[in-house]
Amino acid sequence: MFCNQCEQTAKGIGCEKVGVCGKNEGVASLQDLLTHALQGLAIVAVAARKVGIVDPAVDHFTAEATFACLTNVDFDPARFETWIRKTVELRDSLRARAEGAGATISNDTPALSYRPAADLAGLEAQGVALNFIPSLDENEDLRSLKQITLYGLRGLAAYTDHAAILGQESDEVYAFLQQALADLTRNDLGLDELVALVLKCGEVNLKAMELLDAGNTGTYGHPVPTPVPLGHKAGKAILVSGHDLRDLQLLLEQTKDKGIFVYTHGEMLPCHAYPELKKHPHFYGHYGTAWQNQQKEFAEFPGAILFTTNCIQKPRESYQDNVFTTGLVGWPGLTHIGEDKDFTPVIERALALPGFPNDEDKGEVLTGFARNTVLGVADKVIEGVKSGAIKHFFLVGGCDGAKPGRNYYTEFVEQVPQDCIVLTLACGKFRFFDKKLGDIGGIPRLLDVGQCNDAYSAIQIAVALAGAFDCGVNDLPLSLILSWYEQKAVIILLTLLHLGIKDIRLGPTLPAFITPNVLNVLVDNFAIKPISATPQEDLQAILA
Ligand code: FS2
Ligand code: SF4
Questions:
Q1: Ligand 1 within 6 A of 182 CB?
Q2: How many C-beta atoms surround the C-beta of residue 116 within 10 A?
Q3: Localized where (predicted)?
C-alpha cells in the first residue's frame, strides 16, 4: 500500500505497511481499486453526457463511492467489495446505453476494461497490483497535482453527498466530478493544465458547498446563537458523532418520549443551533472534544454512540458493542444502520446501558454564528472596525488531529489581542472552544461558524464584509490560520485559492503530496505559508 492523503501519514511521507489511521493494506488496496473502477465509470458517464444520457443513480453513486475513500470514513472491506462490483455493473450498463445512442468509447485505458476478481482476496491482489498512486504519473510534480486533484475530489464528493441527502443536487457538480476523475487517467496533461484542474476543483466545490448550505438551512432553518451545555442530565444517553444533520433529526424523532437524552460529539456540536433540531427537548448537550480523542471519551460514555460520517477510529473492546454506524461510515463488526434509518438497535442499546447517574453542570459553550447571525449584526461589526474597537479578525479553523504541534492553535487563540475577534469552524475548534474570550461591544470574541461543512458560511461572511468595506477579501483586516487533516480540508483550501485568497497560514505541517515545485507555484501565486514555530511570530507579522 501507499497512502499519503492525510496529515498524519507515516513519517510525513506515506503509510506503506498499515495506515496510522488504522487502515490496513487490504482496505487501502480496495480503495485504490474502487477509485480505478470509478475512473472507468466516469469516462463512460462523460461520453454518455455527450449523447444526452445523464443517469442520476450513477451520479450520486459516484459521489458516495468517492467519499467512501476519504480518510477515516469506511474501514469495512466487504462494503468496498460491493461498491467495486456495483461500479463495474453501472459502467457496463451505462456504456451499452451510451453506445446505443451513438457514443464511441474506446478501451484505451485499463479502467474501462477492468474486470473484478471473483473474491475479496482476488480484489485485494488486484488493488495491490495497480500500484495506484505511484502510477498516476511518472513526473513527480504532475503526480503531485493529480493527487491534489484526487484528494480534492474526495472532499468535493463528501459535500456533494451531504447536499444530495438533503435534496440539493447539481448536474454541473456531478459532470465535473466525472470529468476530473476521467482526466486523472490521462498522461497528456501538463503542469498548467493540471494547475487549472486543481483550481477548477475549488471553483466547483464552492457550488457544492452552496448546495449543502441551502440543504442545511432550507431544511433546519438558519443557525441562531445557542448556549450548549457541556455537562449532562441524569438518564439514558445517545451520543451522535460525524456531520450528518438528517441522521440526527431522524434519531431525535425516534427517541422522542423514550427517556433518552441525545448529545453531540465532535463536528455535530453546531447542530444545537438549528431551529428545527434544537426544538427537541431531549436534545441536550455536547460531550467530548475532537475525533482523535474518541477512544478515551467513548470508553467513558455510559450510553450508545452513533457515527454518521467520518472520523471513526478503531473501537476499543470496552465500548465496541455501544457503537453503531450509518451512511458511508463503517468499521467491520459494528452494527450498521441501513438506508431505512431505523435506529431501534441504537435506542435499545442506550436503554440497556446505565446512562448518567446524576445531573452535572460543566458550563456551556456558544455556537450558531453562521452567516445569517453574523451578517445580521454586520452594522455593529462594521461600526466596531471603523471606530477601532475591532482591530482584526482571525479565522482559526480546520481539522483537529493528534500531533502535539497542534497546540499552536490553542496558544494562537489565547494570544490574540483583546481588540480582535476569532471566527472558528470545524473540529479544530476543540483546541480552544471552551475558552472564555469575552466580547467587544456585545459581539462575542469567539464565534463558532459551524462544521467544516459550513466553510461556505465563513466565505459568505468574508465576501459580505468585503462588500461593505468596498474592498477585496484580501484587503480586509482578516487572516486565515488553518489546520488540515483530511481531504475536506484540501478541497476547502482549493476553494479559497480559487477565490484568490492570499496569505493563508497552514499547519501543523504541509501535505506530503505537495512537491517543492508545486509548493513554489502556490507560494508564488497565493503567498500560502506554513505556520511558524510559535504563534507570537505569526501574530506579530500579521498585526505589524
Ligand atoms: Fe474533523 Fe474529521 Fe470535519 Fe474532518 S471530524 S477532521 O474528517 O470532516 O474536520
Ligand atoms: Fe495513512 Fe492517512 Fe492514508 Fe490513513 S488516510 S493510510 S493515516 S495517509
A1: no
A2: 16
A3: Cytoplasm
